[in-house]
Design brief:
about 90 residues; alpha+beta; three-stranded antiparallel β-sheet; 3 strands; transmembrane; Knottins-like domain-containing protein; transmembrane helix
């Protein structure tokens, strides 16, 4: 009887876990990026970039290297640029 109770608890726990994953997946929000028009020079500090982007109406700012999508390998490009970031 103990093994039946243990296995039923595992099934319930697994089902609950799957339900929670599905609920979280439905809330995913995408971020949209737009290059800043007011930021001048190479973007080396996200704080400077974020400050400029806030004056342009974006809640966040990020530094990205041109040519690398999603900021991958950020330091291996030629020039880092400032991008405003918001929820789509």
């Amino acid at each position: 009887m103990a093994s039946t109770t243990t296995s039923s608890r595992c099934v319930v726990a697994s089902a609950l876990f799957v339900v929670l994953l599905l609920l979280r997946r439905g809330r995913r929000r995408w971020h949209c990026l737009s290059q800043s028009h007011r930021f001048v020079g190479a973007c080396m500090s996200y704080r400077n970039c974020e400050g400029v982007c806030r004056t342009e109406g974006f809640p966040w700012g990020v530094c990205r290297t041109e040519g690398f999508p999603w900021g991958v390998c950020r330091w291996h490009g030629i020039e880092r640029k400032c991008y405003g970031k918001r929820l789509c």
